[in-house]
TrEMBL record:
Organism: Streptomyces goshikiensis
Name the record gives this protein: MFS transporter
A Pfam family per the record: MFS_1
InterPro entries with a match to the protein in the record: MFS, MFS_trans_sf
Lineage: Bacteria, Bacillati, Actinomycetota, Actinomycetes, Kitasatosporales
Keywords from the UniProt entry: Cell membrane, Membrane, Transmembrane, Transmembrane helix
Transmembrane segments: 39-61, 216-238, 244-266, 299-318, 364-383
Major location (coarse): membrane
Compartment(s) of residence: Cell membrane
Membrane topology: Multi-pass membrane protein
PANTHER family: INTEGRAL MEMBRANE EFFLUX PROTEIN-RELATED, STAPHYLOFERRIN A TRANSPORTER
Length: 399
């Protein structure tokens, strides 16, 4: 492993852990003195800039060196979290101030995300990308597991302000690490009419890849269904599967499945990566069906673990295929549409779950979501580009 790759892995790990600390810290800080409405306002203030700014962030990722954009984004997130920590330590929770700092964080996430993907493609040679993406997936999965527990322990032990300061320090570490990643000078296409011209050119490039659009839309259905499951799953677990402890156990098993899938992604003899991505995505239908039918806990646990294993497999394979198939000079803009659909679809599922369940019950939305998820993701197999071997190579397995 080269020093560049080690620096890249370390920096992304710092950022992943810092990102995982934020939701629990904000939730505990606001709920202690505020209301559910206050919490919704703060979380919405973070989400809205993410969604609105992603297309422009994709242009920035293609226009400027990726490491500089990532550096600026991490420093902005660090400043926002340090400011949040200072606010929480020096007085009562002030919702407008927290919302403003959350908006800065959301904007920085929007600009950092496409550039981080471009940075990996620029810094890592093509034969090593699947291995690196798999390791990044493991780091992200471990961060998602450790982040909430760490934030909860710090908040309960010494206060939410210190948790935000820790988050800011981790973003500083990420900035110092990723900001030093050296990549070959990229070949930049001539600018066409400023940001708007580049944005139109990015959309034109996106439409040139039907395999990409089909998968992104299918993944949007997946994220919408995941929002429904994350809202209705705990309710069903409490009512029919033994209580809140069962949901916690299922979540832990799902995390274990995710990590196992990420670890396996670089070792399985995958001959057609996008076929594997489609099949892995369709596994989400299993827990949706299990929860809808209120199957026994053991069956539901197996279904949930299998689906999360599929997520672990598809994530590095999908990232690697995007980095291989999309030209580097347009990767930021094209990839931003992928992230945009993901960011927008899951909150929609979270918001729609309770109203739908109130009208139809919990089973119908989950069963419909299961059918749509399986159909949307398996239908991409009809495209020839999805079924094709990667550049005629027999396998992407890394041994």
């Amino acid at each position: 492993m080269t020093p560049t790759i080690r620096r890249l892995l370390a920096g992304r790990t710092f950022a992943a852990l810092a990102t995982a600390l934020i939701p629990t810290t904000l939730t505990l800080a606001v709920i202690r003195t505020g209301s559910a409405g206050d919490l919704g306002l703060v979380l919405a203030a973070e989400m809205l800039p993410m969604v609105l700014l992603l297309p422009l962030a994709g242009v920035a990722a293609d226009r400027w060196p990726a490491r500089r954009v990532v550096l600026a984004a991490d420093l902005a997130r660090a400043a926002a979290q340090l400011g949040t920590g200072a606010m929480l330590l020096t007085g009562p929770v002030r919702i407008p101030g927290l919302a403003a700092l959350a908006a800065v964080t959301g904007a920085a996430v929007a600009f950092g995300n496409p550039s981080a993907r471009t940075l990996v493609a620029a810094a890592v040679p093509a034969p090593d990308r699947l291995r690196v993406n798999a390791r990044l997936g493991v780091a992200n999965g471990l961060a998602q597991l450790a982040g909430p527990a760490t934030a909860g322990a710090v908040v309960l032990g010494v206060g939410a302000g210190w948790s935000s300061l820790l988050t800011g320090a981790l973003f500083v570490c990420s900035a110092l690490t990723l900001g030093g990643v050296r990549t070959p000078p990229p070949e930049r296409a001539a600018l066409r009419g400023g940001f708007l011209g580049e944005l139109r050119a990015g959309w034109a490039e996106t439409r040139r890849h039907p395999w990409f659009l089909a998968n992104v839309l299918a993944h949007g259905v997946w994220h919408l269904a995941a929002g429904l499951l994350l809202t209705l799953g705990p309710l069903i677990a409490v009512e029919s599967l033994g209580g809140a402890g069962t949901w916690v156990l299922l979540s832990q098993l799902g995390t274990a499945g995710l990590l196992l899938g990420v670890w396996a992604a670089g070792r399985l003899p995958v001959r057609r990566p996008l076929v594997a991505v489609a099949v892995a995505s369709s596994l989400q239908a299993l827990p949706l069906t299990a929860f809808a039918l209120r199957l026994p806990t053991a069956v539901t646990a197996g279904a949930f673990c299998a689906a999360m294993f599929g997520v672990g497999v598809l994530s590095p394979l999908w990232e690697t295929e995007i980095q291989r198939r999309i030209p580097l000079e347009t990767l930021g803009r094209v990839g931003s549409f992928d992230t945009l659909i993901s960011f927008a679809a899951r909150p929609l599922g979270l918001a729609a779950a309770a109203p739908l369940a109130a009208v139809t019950g919990t089973a119908a939305p989950l069963l419909v979501a299961a059918v749509l998820t399986a159909a949307a993701n398996l239908s991409v197999l009809l495209l020839r580009d999805v079924r094709a071997h990667p550049e005629g190579k027999p396998s992407l397995a890394l041994r």
